[in-house]
Amino acid sequence: MAGHVNIKRTIPFFWVMNINQSLHFYINLLGFIIKQQWLDDGKLRWCSIEREEAQLMLQEFWKKGTEYNLPRSPLGIGVSIYFFCEDAISLYKEFRSRHAEPAKPFVGNGMWVTELHDPDGYSLFFESVTDAAEGSIYSD
To answer: Is residue 50 part of a domain?
Structure first.
């Protein structure tokens, strides 16, 4: 159907080992906020977090009971999320000021790129368009 938009957006969903540790990373170090949450018997099990137009969902693995679903392999392997930004360099500086450890930005494919890994090993890339030379490395 021409002009009809059916699929509106994608929201990555990360299973995490410790939701409190993940929330510390995403909220305190990256500046996300909780938009929705699910409490089960007083324990936070799932939440939706946002920063500006970016959204992620986090859910802690069930570690006991009939819902037990701990993974057999390390988390984050092969998972990369790219956040397209207006200014990846300013985010790099902001994240460092919050005591996160982003990789030093470099230019790849015409974009400044900085990378972080969350507590479960998921790769997060923040990128913004630039006219700087390919392969350039940002210096503080």
So the answer is: yes
Does 83 fall in a domain? yes
Q: Is there a domain that residue 20 lies in?
A: yes
pLDDT tens, N- to C-terminus, the chain (140 residues)? 678 899 999 999 999 999 999 999 999 999 999 999 999 889 999 999 999 999 999 999 988 777 778 878 888 888 999 999 999 999 999 999 999 999 999 999 999 999 999 999 999 999 999 999 999 999 98
User: CB atoms < 10 A from the CB of 16, how many?
Assistant: 21
CA separation for the pair 127, 87 (Å, rounded): 7
- Which amino acid does the sequence have at 4? H
In this structure, what token pair is assigned to residue 130? 């630039």
Domain span at residue 116 reads: 13-64+78-129
Domain count for the chain, please give it. 1
| CATH number of the domain residue 84 falls in | 3.10.180.10
